[in-house]
Amino acid sequence: MSVLLLFSIFAPSFTLVVGLAGCRHDQIQAITQFKNEFDSRDCNQTDYFNGVWCDNTTGVVTKLQLPSGCLRGTLKPNSSLFGLQHLRYLNLTNNNFTSASLPSGFGNLNKLQVLYLSSNGFLGQVPSSFSNLSQLYILDLSHNELTGSFPFVQNLTKLSILELSYNHFSGAIPSSLLTLPFLSSLDLRENYLTGSIEVPNSSTSSRLEFMYLGNNHFEGQILEPISKLINLKELDVSFLNTSYPIDLKLFSSLKSLMRLVLSGNSLLATSISSDSKIPLNLEELVLLSCGLIEFPAILKNLKKLEVNLFNNLFTDLEGSGEVLVNSSVRLLDLAYNHFRGPFPKPPLSINLLSAWNNSFTGNIPLETCNRSSLAILDLSYNNLTGPIPPCLSNFQDSLIVVNLRKNNLEGSLPDIFSDGALLRTLDVGYNQLTGKLPRSLLNCSMLRFVSVDHNRIKDTFPFWLKALPDLQALTLRSNKFHGPISPPDRGPLAFPKLRILEIADNNFTGSLPPNYFVNWEASSLQMNEDGRIYMGDYNNPYYIYEDTVDLQYKGLFMEQGKVLTSYATIDFSGNKLEGQIPESIGLLKALIALNLSNNAFTGHIPPSLANVTELESLDLSRNQLSGNIPKGLGSLSFLAYISVAHNQLTGEIPQGTQITGQSKSSFEGNAGLCGLPLEETCFGSNAPPTQQPKEEDEEEEQVLNWKAMLIGYGPGLLFGLVIAHVIASYKPKWFVK
């Protein structure tokens, strides 16, 4: 918002025309030539030219804003772009330029006032020609691979916003940088900057309001000079690797400070006491991984505060359960500490409350129900007992996320939801809940994620949840669900948007009709309209909450993996399902993992599985399947794991890199199978030839002629998800924006 407002303030007084209508012919030629210098097949031509703005009087191009990811290739030093010397606004953010250095030709565009070049993979040092851009108000070079220092900024005297974060800049911050008269926002996070920081004596007149220095290698007492920048509103000095503890009293002069990030630093114990001189107007205090043992008493005094204390060493709250009641904290993250004992009564004004991965015991305090503005409640991975309070219905007009996973809660899920409830995520897995699923969940029309796995719920399959228009993930694993999973009319299951269905280890029975998988979301899955990679709540201005599921992949079990928005998984294992596997399974082009093991399926493996081209994990073991393994499975490029062990399969195992690379155990228990990776050879044996029954081919043709859009998605999604989970095992589910 601030960037847009800034440009509108400084924008020159000429009339701009969107598109090519007001552009001179030579300018249109230059813009077209620039586009043709790249592979632009992914670029919508209308969107591209709608990002061109021309001066209505002179016809010259003055603004160029390309769609994200529009161009692929190398930005060459002689590009026609650098002939557009009347440009005042240029945005090339997030394109697919082949990694190369920043062309010096940018220095020719000396009328530029706004320049965005972030997320393009540019390498090397910033050319000295950038010092020619003396009219710049905004310069964004963030998220590249740039090195060296940036002395060119001393000539950019009109600069107001400078974004150089997430690069490889090194050396000291140029002393001239903090003397720029209009500089209001400086972001240097995630670089290799060293040395000290010099703040001029005239700093009291500095306009600097936003300063982000986290994750660098500064030396000496850098915070003392920063304390002279009295107009600061936001300051990030996280992970400075200082050899001394930080005294919060250093920030007492920053009376306008609203957001302070000190994560990854050691804090002076006396400075977090109640008599600290920290600015009382502070709204957000982030203390992740600070090694704190004593609970900060300053939280009792601060107003309008949002606090993140994730991953410290707290064991108790330094007082009774009412230590936070009178606090005005709105956002409180106590996750990944060592808190024990009863859970405290939350602050009256609380909006987001996270305390996952601690050792809290006792009941969920009933006082929680009086916090009418509570939107996100995450008390997962604790030792809480007793029932889920029915009074949670008191704030169903605000409650978006309830995560009580991995506690020892008892009783049934309260049937408390009335029409218009805003709930999107409900996760109560790994408790001792009994009874049935509450039918009032039908009133939660925005519900997207439901996980009740590993409880003692005794109910039939919830066909009635089909009425929820946006339900995407349903996990019923390891309960006492029973009965058929086929609709009474023997038609498709067809939840409107369901793409993750985990019902393993229950007592489901019956067979599946041939058209069971018709009209499933997984047959035409697309990325979220908002472009989000993971499922979760992204609407809070300060925090992100991301849903997680337990993953079963390649025969391994992994906890708490994030849920990608662009894939589908099905797990019906460990039930008593029988009959043939529906041929319509071949319609699920976005399916990445399928587990039908430990059932009583009979008949042949559907040849249509060869059409599920994104499939990475397939487990059909311990059934009563017969016939040959379809040859088409050998051509599935991403199939990392397959098991058909302990069936009645015969014939030659299809040969292909993904098949022959499997272990012998994936095919054991089938007396009639031969070929690699088994030791039994098919030559000279009595093994029947590998062919598919005629009637099966006809059925496949009939099923795959059903009307369906078959869209494939990128390779290795689930494998990448598992790797990401390993890397991020100790990262929070909540993220500071």
From TrEMBL:
Alphabetized InterPro entries for the sequence: Leu-rich_rpt, Leu-rich_rpt_typical-subtyp, LRR_R13L4/SHOC2-like, RLP23-like
Subcellular location: Cell membrane
The entry's keywords: Cell membrane, Glycoprotein, Leucine-rich repeat, Membrane, Receptor, Repeat, Signal, Transmembrane, Transmembrane helix
Transmembrane segment boundaries: 710-730
The protein, known as: Leucine-rich repeat
Claim: Nuclease is one of the keywords in the record: no
Source domain of life: Eukaryota
Signal peptide coordinates: 1-19
Family, per entry: Belongs to the RLP family.
Cellular component, GO annotation: plasma membrane
Sequence ranges assigned to domain Disease resistance R13L4/SHOC-2-like LRR in this UniProt record: 79-164
Membrane topology of the entry: Single-pass type I membrane protein
Pfam families: LRR_1, LRR_14
Primary localization class, coarse: membrane
UniProt KW Cell membrane keyword: yes
